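Blinded run. Sample ID left blank on purpose so nobody reads anything into the name before looking at the predicted structure. Input follows.
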Amino acid sequence: MKTITPYHKDKGDIGVDFAELYLTTEGKEFKRASKLQDMEQGTDCFIDGIPTDVKNTNDIFICQIMTDTGRVNTRHPFKKKSKATHYCVVNVPIDDASNPVTKGKFIEHVNIKERLLRDFIKDETNLKAFYKQLQDLENKNMKDFGVSQSQACFKIKQLILPFLKPDVGLSYVEPTDADGEISFRLYKSKKKINNEPTNLDVKSILSKFKTNNANTSPSTGENIITINV
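Blinded prediction complete.
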């Protein structure tokens, strides 16, 4: 089996290490990207020549606010200069990094936009708007969105929510708990999020209306109709 450099403490680095071990064992061509390609283009590696962003999480981190400067940083692969076209999704807990082959799990190597449409974003129109919104956020300052970090976070969240599927949540660390940055994360909710009223909700509302209506008695006076409750 191919040997690589020792594991790093960073979860993302561990994910790349595991992806290399797993995919080369499967006969795939795996080439690590340079540090410059990683930083500027969001490419961790090339799998069979495909520029890939390795994710050691099922969630999607889309942007962050740097707490020292208030600057908004859009995350790869959503920057205008991002080059990665695919995600390689793995699950390797840091505690299990010493034995990644048996403990880690390879999930998929998938086109980024395909995965976003499948799991997170409503449709292609919303996907285009989602990318544009994130690119518009790049290098903005939190003061552009509110007088406090809390207001800025809430405003940014409101800008992103309309693009998401009903069962997708958007979370961020509260500014008071942030350690250098406030990261915004998309995740699949275990319980479907639906703000639309269900048939049961409608029946309940109608039932309450009928009950309230039965307990009212109209009276008239000087051509004005009043309702006594």
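Unblinding after everyone has recorded impressions. The longest strand covers residues 181-188.
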